[in-house]
Amino acid sequence: MPATPPFRTPEELVIMRQAGQIVADVIERMKKLVRPGVTTLELDLAAEEIIRQRGGRPAFKGYGPPARPPFPGTICASVNDVVVHGIPGGQVLCEGDIVSIDVGVEHRGFFGDTAVTLPVGSVSKTARRLMKTCARALELAIDLARPGQALCRLGAAIQEHVESYGFSVVRDFVGHGIGTNLHQPPEVPNYRKPGAPEVTLEPGLVIAIVPMINAGTHKIKVDRDGWTARTADGRLSAHFEHTVAVTDDEPNVLTLP
Predict the structure, then answer these.
(1) What is the rounded CA–CA span in Å between residue 137 and residue 65?
(2) Distance from the CA of 46 to the CA of which of 56, 57, 150, 226 falls in 20 to 30 A?
(3) What is the pLDDT of residues 148-176, one digit of tens each?
């Protein structure tokens, strides 16, 4: 990923807010649909319908680096030990599962990206703590997304909070800049990353902050499909994400409802 981050104009941020509202609408719909007996494919089809009705394009569908096959879904639906990039299909959600829904959209040439981890019915105490800890870590990082702040401080805050609750931060995936591309500079680590380029936040920078945390080890393994990333020890994983614009004042969360 190139080192120089682009900056967005106020007019471009208006369009990015529109893209953010589309993915926010999808997440609100997912919260109503997620329940025991629903398949991840049903969630995927509902998400695509919303995106296209709003005039957007599913950003994940057909996406893929050269070394991997194109991603087939509109959403990533990652259940229980799946950290990220779960492919939607015939998997039936069961009471006690947790499912992370990650969704991206392109709208008028700009992108929005957000994610949430949802309980399926009644879940375990560990699952509830994991989700609450991850959601709070995202809030802490967002609050630091202000001009003059060192980008590395966001990852340090996430790691400090997560590890204080006995959980671990995934190292293999990071947040990212976002704008006219889904993934662009800078990288946004969720942990202290020695040797990472020094980036100071400035107004107009837009980043996707994506803490991914595990109940056990931070290590992962990837299925033969080339996409589905699971915890190495089979324990639960959760992640939350918002697209955030740095402004002269408060952080502007573009993917809030």
Answers:
(1) 29
(2) 226
(3) 999 999 999 999 999 999 999 999 999 99
pLDDT in tens, 94-133: 999 999 999 999 999 999 999 999 999 999 999 999 999 9
Tokens coding 77: 């639906």
pLDDT at 1: 46
Domains present along the chain, CATH in parentheses: 10-253 (3.90.230.10)
Model pTM score: 0.96
CA 189 to chain centre: 12
Question: H or E segment at 187?
Answer: strand 184-188
Q: Six-digit token pair at 116?
A: 């949430």
Q: CB within 8 A of 110, min separation 6: which ones?
A: 12, 15, 16, 19, 179, 180
Name the E strands within 34-172. Answer: 57-58, 75-79, 82-84, 98-107, 110-119, 168-169
Token pair recorded at residue 55: 């005039």
DSSP codes of every residue in 195-228: TPPP-B--TT-EEEE--EEESS-S-EEE-TTS--
User: For residues 84-121, b (16+ Cβ closer than 10 Å) or e, as one string?
Assistant: bbbbbeebebeeebbbbbbbbbbbeebbbbbbbbbbbe
Is there a contact between 20 and 107 (Cβ–Cβ < 8 Å)? no
**Tokens (6 digits) for 80:** 């229980």
CB atoms within 10 A of CB 28: 12
Which residues, in sequence order, are CB contacts of 176 under 8 Å at separation 6+?
1, 183, 184, 185, 186, 187, 188, 207, 208, 210
The CA distance from 3 to 135, in Å, is 28
The answer, yes or no, to whether the previous bond of 69 is cis (omega within 30 of 0) is no
